[in-house]
Amino acid sequence: MLKVEKLQKSFDGFMAVADANLEVSKGEVVAVIGPNGAGKTTLFHLITGQVSPDSGHIFFKGQDIAGLAPYQICRKGICRSYQVVNIFKRMTVFENVQVALMSFLKMTLNVMTPARKLLIKETLDILESVGLAEKSNQISGSLSHGDQKVLEIAIALGNRPELLILDEPTAGMSPEETAMALGLMNRLSGKLGLTILFCEHDMELVFSIAERIMVMQLGKTLIQSTPDLVKSCRQVQEAYLGGGYLTDA
Amino acid sequence: MPDQKIDVQKIFWVMGIGLLFLLLPRFLPRFYVYLTALILLTGLLATSLNLVLGFGGMYQFHHAVFYGVGAYSLALMLTKSGLPVWTGFIAAPLISAIVGYIIGLICVRLSKLYFGMLQISLGSLVWAIVFRWYSFTGGDDGIHGIPLPKILSVSHGAYYFTLIITAISLYLMFRIVHSPFGRTFQAIRDNPERCEAIGIHVRRHQLAGEVIAGFFAGIAGTLFVTVEASVFPDLMFWTLSLEILIMCLLGGWFTFFGPMLGAAIMVILRTFVGIYTEYWTLILGIVLMLLIFFMPDGVLGMIQKAGGRGDGVKGNHRL
Fold first, then answer.
1. Cβ–Cβ < 8 Å for B61, B245
2. N or C: which end of chain B has fewer CB within 10 A?
3. B191: which chain A residues are within 8 Å (Cβ-Cβ)?
4. What are phi and psi of B211, to 5 degrees?
5. Is B127 inside any structural domain?
6. Whether residue A37 has pLDDT greater than 50
């Protein structure tokens, strides 16, 4: 479904992504791991168009989407959440998701229908599926950090994505919230059959949910394989996991 | 779930205020009726600015251009063309909207302050043309004694026309603010980057906002011609843009009716303080300073907060 080939991006001479290669098949859950500064977030920015690549290809369903604008990529079916909470803080939880749905249904240039009457059921369905339905009338900026991260995902679901990209979905979450987020990701990939690509520092979470793992270091892809093979890969252990860690896990 | 109830109290308020304005000429001297018309059309202008400023988060620094273009378009059509009178009233806002489109097309490529700076320079260009082109626009003299349709020049015709058109325009803008477009626009104000990521073509929406705001500013311009029967280049000078910007801030730029209130305060201040001193801007400066320190949300914003309507989060439009 998604294929990244020899992707490169440098900022003012700093090679953020030097040679990234990645493959995600339909229905799969793929994790990207790597130390801080390995280029994971930049890779996601490249895929979703926030940053355009210097060279390389990004194929989505056989089509090269490298360099397209973010809104175009979103309309092709790739949606994302952000590492740092990135929501519409002055709007209610309901409105946050509703706007995404309006965008998906191309209603955003409609100037005459009252918005409060639109897409109520669809919006509540999404909020229900992530467990935020009771908080739908709250101003999103007043939610707890964990809820805001979940709302991130809910907004991304508004565009009915085929590929959902989550940038550190549990960053800054408490252990309970992390467990809930893990449950949510399981539901999204199981029940809704979403393809999920995510990066994460919580190794326990990564190895419990990812079907394949891609390891990045200094902007390069070291390996992409199944969790077991990644665990046993010496290169990975030396580069990132400091040896030993995974054999204990 | 959003509030689905029809607010009866609100309807009574709107009807009461409407009735008050309708009966105003019966018990107010002519000058005050004129002043009210001026407040209404200035309020309309400020509200149209707030559409992009408060709801769209765009730094619309030279909004008066669209007002001036509307006024001049009507004035020129009435004095220089043989077209039926009412076509001018329809064409003028459309011309403003077109100018909004052209200026917007260039400006939305930039963001925030740069957007505003570019707009000031493009707007000043339009002003300079009008100011200098004596043979066509009358230059710095402007155009005076514009022949208006009879219905507008008799008794309180201009006032009622202004009142009706302002009410309709406000209603339409209110609908727009609460439409999917309006909601998207507010989302863009809060977080343009995220909007792009959920498939919204931010620039296109900003451009659409610019056209809509230009259109309504153009309507305000035609109303000015109706009330004053004259136009002059000051209508599109940048100081006027600043004034209406202050009206939005003063009334509360995160509320829908705030700019209307701000316009009322400013017009009244200018008129009455202006009688005693020509340094009325001095008073304005003091008002502004007090505003920034004590009422950052504007008058209406503060009233709403005090009344418990505000949710404690700035900019959650409820009125």
1. yes
2. N
3. 86-89
4. -65, -45
5. yes
6. yes
